[in-house]
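Record ATP-dependent zinc protease, 153 aa.
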Amino acid sequence: MKSIDPANIVGLREWVDLPQLGIIGLRAKIDTGASTSSLHASDIQPFERDGQPWVRFTAYLGTQVQRRHRCEAPLVSLKTIKSSNGHSQSRYVISTRLTLGRHSWPIELTLACRKTMRYRMLLGCKALVDGRLLVDPARSYVQDKPLLALGDA
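=>
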């Protein structure tokens, strides 16, 4: 039996950074039932930069005190997502770097309205697999706040 590195264990909730978007200190809910990760965004505007598709959007950080942060990222695709209640929705998909604890790797994020949700970001199973993480749902904030700074992206 292989031993499990505690650095690869996450709880039900964790602190994350999205340094390429300039987002530091965001609480994320870990959701093994969701395939794709999702970020609360509004004012989503597709545009072209150097002939390539990009998207501009406002990300919302914090739950009690709303902080807004304007972001731009290359557009990966437009994807139809089926929610847990059975509704289908078309969402923009971006790729960006995620930092969790001392780990950092690229993930895909859908941009969605999560204003009624407690957590502004959902970390889905594809990102967990790519990061080689194991979930202990009985715990929260297992990992320290990310160690990488914006300059390390």
